[in-house]
Amino acid sequence: MEGSANSKNVSNYEMLAQYYDELLQDEEALSLWLKYIEEEKFSSVLELASGSGVMAGILQKKGYDIIASDISEAMKEAARENYSGEYLNLNMTDYDLNRKFDLILCICDSINYLYEEELDDFFACAARHLNKNGRLIFDMHHQERLNEFKEQYIEEGFVKDIPYQWTISSDDFDRTVSEHFTFYTKDGMIQEHHTQNVFDPECVKVKMDKYFRVRSIDDFVEDEKILMVGYLK
Predict the structure, then answer these.
(1) Which tens digits make up the pLDDT trace of 185-231?
(2) CATH homologous superfamily of domain 16-143+200-232?
(3) Where are the CATH 2.20.25 domain residues in the chain?
(4) Which fold has domain 7-13+144-196?
């Protein structure tokens, strides 16, 4: 693909946010999350790592009292297309909102952006913000993802008339999945890189057990996503 000789590296969804829904939206998983949420009795919801606000917007339209949040300012801006409620910029391991919720939700493998040593802070913070009998629901990468991307995946095409290349690769030793995006704009080439950690589910359960009774659905999306449910102790 051709572009200007100019090259720029960005981070924290600074570029990807504006193309997120077109490139990364997972309709199958979205319908599964929604089905699971609607089977339960929740009223107030805090969504962590809300990204482009698609799930927050759906829940808002269905009458849930929901607050969205993300650490990325660019994602907050992109979410204006999907969600009109309160959207906070916050770190999902360190926040104090002075209120509690029936459900804290974190989808799209967002927890995999954390390091293992950050998981306890994630669980502790969520537990402090849940009502009695509240739930924490999140999904994370299935370990099979490490095998899936041993051979690099490469996708090329156009998004909003912009040529792009998207590669995904895994590292068994570091237990990571890395995604690299290159956009060929009229002003030059813009690159954005994201690395996620693939956790041992048993390790996650041990850390959750300090605050929650734990249920895992290992085949939530076969060989792709594990759904974790924490029932506040």
Answers:
(1) 998 999 999 999 999 999 999 999 999 999 999 989 999 999 999 99
(2) Vaccinia Virus protein VP39 (3.40.50.150)
(3) 7-13+144-196
(4) N-terminal domain of TfIIb (2.20.25)
* Crossing angle (nearest 10°) for helices 27-38 and 54-61: 40
For residues 47-62, b (16+ Cβ closer than 10 Å) or e, as one string?
Answer: bbbbbbbbbbbbbbee
Residue range(s) in the chain whose domain bears CATH number 3.40.50.150: 16-143+200-232
Q: What is the four-CA torsion angle of 44, 48, 51, 53, rounded to 10 degrees?
A: 0
Query: Is the pTM value of this prediction over 0.90?
Result: yes
